[in-house]
Design a protein that fits this description.
The chain is an alpha+beta fold and about 80 residues long. It has three helices and three strands. It has a three-stranded antiparallel β-sheet with strand order 1-3-2, with helices on both faces. The radius of gyration is 12 Å and the shape is globular.
Length: about 80
Amino acid sequence: SYTEAREIGEAYRDGTPVIINLTEMDNADAKRVVDFAAGLAFALRGSMDRVTNKVFLLSPADADVSAEDRRRIAEGGLFLRR
């Protein structure tokens, strides 16, 4: 839910890549979370990538996510930091 935005922000701010799965959210709330996450990525000089239609990966500036990692995330696997 949108109330989890704080947890997303804190983990990302601490340098942890975050997977955001919005598949169970209604479109209006999902858009709010995407806007929030895009702001985080911009402010902290990281990146935000769409993995699937409603799944996004927030990567901190110092994180290097390989194409293989992105493929595993898209298939539902886990992404472990470093």
